[in-house]
Amino acid sequence: MKAAVLSSAPGKLDFEDLILDEPGPHEVLLRTAAVGLCHSDLHYIDGTWSTGLPEVLGHEAAGVVEVVGAEVTSVRPGDHVVSCLTAYCGNCAYCLTGRLALCENNGELRKRERPALSRADGSSVGRMGGLGAFAEHMLVHQNAVVAIDPAMPLDVASVLGCAVITGLGAVFHGAKVRPGATVAVVGCGGVGIAAIQGARLAGAAKVIAVDIQKSALDKALAVGATHAVDAYSGDPVEAVRTISGGGVDYAFEVIGSRHTAEQAFSMLGRGGTATILGMVPDHTPIQIKGSDLFFDEKKIQGSFIGSNRFPVDIPYFVDLYLQGRLHLDDMISLRLPFSKINDGFDTLRGGGVTRIVLDMSLEQS
To answer: Do 181 and 243 sit in the same domain of this protein?
Structure first.
């Protein structure tokens, strides 16, 4: 099968013909239908983050089940599915208390006796997060996918597995935004746009979008933000505090920098909660005032891939989309064939896009 392989970083993806192993007892073989391009993938390509090489990246995908292992019970051939990085064991303390994203056996589920992907010379090729979605087929654990309503277009469904579940999940599960609350979202890319929609769906009274690009702010206003703050035109913290009447109840940071994480915390009113969705680089300290934590009861927390329960969350999000309540079509700025994957990442580097999706069906047209 054809796959886009990262062999050196910084670098680019090279197309190779790889050998795909047969599914194990708990594994599922999928035909990849569509894959979203995520900044996490770009960080690995550009060498900002390190990973084992060679590797097939890609983790935000939708596809169709072709073959299932002997002990697979959750899906069957022909099912339309969405993948998620947070494969879960279902037996550890985190899974049993509903915190599937923190499953302590996630890594164990990815281990195999033989490599899932290999080159003709027998050398193995890794799969990002046990998925490796930049390929014509994916071989994954059954607890890394969930079946969805076939009425859902697969190209749109692909963005559910990372951008949407991270943004909506952080609102619903991580922060637990309450009706009537005030919310600020710092960074209005794919995850930020999803968080804004989550805040709208949760019944927030004010949803304040913060970004440096007018196009991103316009998109935010179109999907549910009530106010927009251009972070280049002045102090975004003061602007948010003014709009909200003294500080928001919930702030979400969706960029992944120390500066914006500290800004999100500073935007809070008394008793507020800042949730960090962006991956702040390792060893980067975040500085906040201890008096704010104590006297004002402010909180700062992380939310890993939306603190998700994806087997339940993703079908729910599909229902919201099919009901017209969750707007996903406008989140996709560009659709490209698989062969144009490097062009897609060049576009992503340039900014100004919400999500780029590789539609595998375009290769056949």
So the answer is: yes
How far is Cα 192 from Cα 291, in angstroms, rounded to an integer?
29
Active-site residue identified among 39, 59, 80, 137? 59
Is residue 283 among the annotated active site residues? Answer: no
Asked whether residue 203 falls in the same domain as residue 262, the answer is yes
Domain count, the chain: 2
- Answer whether 0.90 is exceeded by the pTM: yes
Active-site choice (40, 158, 266, 303): 40
Strand, helix or coil for residue 201: helix
Active site annotation includes 141: no
CATH number for position 283: 3.40.50.720
Helix ranges, the chain (H): 39-45, 93-96, 106-110, 154-157, 163-169, 190-201, 214-223, 236-244, 258-266, 290-295, 310-322, 341-350
Helix (H, G, I), strand (E, B) or coil at 339: helix
Residues of the domain holding 20:
2-147+328-364
Q: Is 38 tagged catalytic?
A: yes
Catalytic residue among 38, 95, 103, 188: 38
pLDDT, tens digit, 9 for 90 and up, residues 190-221: 999 999 999 999 999 999 999 999 999 999 99
Mark whether 285 and 179 lie in a shared domain: yes
Rounded distance, CA 345 to CA 99, Å?
32
Q: Which of 84, 95, 103, 162 is catalytic?
A: 162
Q: Which one of the listed residues 8, 26, 43, 327 is annotated catalytic?
A: 43
| Cβ neighbours of 165 (radius 10 Å) | 30
For residues 142 and 353, give the distance between their C-alpha atoms in angstroms, rounded to a whole number. 32
Give catalytic status of residue 162 as yes or no.
Answer: yes
> Are residues 9 and 129 part of one domain?
yes
Length of the chain: 365
Reported as a single tens digit per residue, the pLDDT across 49-98 is 888 899 999 999 999 999 999 999 999 999 999 999 999 999 999 999 99
